[in-house]
Amino acid sequence: MQKILTEQHVPVMVQEVFEILSPALEFENSVLVDCTLGLGGHSEHFLKEHDRLKVIGFDQDSIALTRAKERLAAYKNRVVFVGKNFNQLRTELNKIQIEKVNAIIFDLGVSSIQIDEKERGFSYLSSDPLDMRMNQSQSLNAQEIVNTWQEHEIAKILFQYGEEKFAKKIAKNIINKRNKSLIKTTAELVEIINNSIPAPARRTGGNPAKKTFQALRIAVNQELDVLKEALLQAVEIVAPGGRIAVLTYHSLEDRIVKQFFKSLIRVSDIPREIPVIESLQQDFKLITNKPLRPTKAEIAVNSRSKSAKLRGIEKLMRAA
Questions:
Q1: Does pLDDT of 54 surpass 70?
Q2: Where do the domains of the chain lie, and which CATH numbers do they carry?
Q3: Would you say 107 and 113 are in contact if contact means Cβ atoms under 8 Å apart?
């Protein structure tokens, strides 16, 4: 039996996200953009606490969007659902005639629904079809990559996106296996990975398949390129006094966010009384000098929060 939505999806670091973004939402008719609506957990919390808030929720996963509509039915007059990838942020907001918003949240990575629904092929813990598409209308999936891409291409993504030091061996064994028969399931891929990694290495660092599955998921969904593009749009769209919060779950995402935020505030630590060339003044300040992490209590309740890092940034009023 399917879990009810509030049990199926526990939003990660919801209170910390709320504390970062809420100061930007105290205005009349404030607008929050939830770039990764998922099952609506973060948005639900904000809608409960800010009774005049409007939420624009993006999710390219049609199944997640349908479930979010169910969860947020009580707030339907204050929510606009957008079935698009968040790299379409500017285009979709223009369609509904919204130029600026007060707050933006990104909760990156795989959602609960994508992991829990086995036919999606995101999990390495069971035998399911190799898929990993967040947007099920796109053609490229993980099965196509492992069965058609060249060996050096597979090795490259495993190393770059999974930071897998055995990438070349895994790629070679993928080719050897597919030359005999197509690789169709997650279990077949996990077996190849396990046979490619020396036993001592398999006993440390978590599940041996984790890095390869992460790499394939990123490649299928072009996650890092999409993130970079969306961050650029977000800092343009957020209003002066507005805030952006980003939850990441692996080092590649966090590095992108950290470096991007740092590029926006290079001279922001200079005291205001010290003259600065106007063209060098930055329009942003960090809310979190270091990423916030989930508490031990949260991790105990929601193990998926364990690797989360939360960063926040604010556009200064002088950017007006």
A1: yes
A2: 5-113+223-319 (3.40.50.150), 120-221 (1.10.150.170)
A3: no
